Amino acid sequence: MSSSRYEQGLAKLQQIDGQAGENVINSLRDIAPDFARYLIEFPFGDIYSRPGLDLRSREIAVVAALTALGNAAPQLKVHIEGALNVGVSRDEVVEVIMQMAVYAGFPAALNGLFAAKEVFAARPAACTP
């Protein structure tokens, strides 16, 4: 295992998700610490660190994908926070989620909008870059 891969992933996780990402990792330490490490190394150390897309574009894609899944509200909330952290506006988050109604159906889009509403309510507009 490369410690630089872990360190790079941890730095990227902090940059994108901040405390919300750390909370996910910490919640896994007592049940599946290896899985927590995998979450840091692979998605954040390997994929998010690739040069092909900026973090803003990556988070838009993740919000769309998690919305389309329709069954990943906790992860969607973390990534809506991440999207806001890397410069996606609230209006853009809403538009991305609404777009998913076309491809994933209205129930998935509704679930996504309600997740966004919770995130927005817990995060004052002044905290959004």
TrEMBL record:
Protein name per Swiss-Prot or TrEMBL: Carboxymuconolactone decarboxylase
Lineage: Bacteria, Pseudomonadati, Pseudomonadota, Betaproteobacteria, Burkholderiales
Carboxymuconolactone decarboxylase-like domain boundaries: 33-118
GO molecular function: peroxiredoxin activity
Listed InterPro entries: 4CMD/NDH-1_regulator (IPR052512), AhpD-like (IPR029032), CMD-like (IPR003779)
Origin species: Polaromonas naphthalenivorans (strain CJ2)
Short name of one Pfam family: CMD
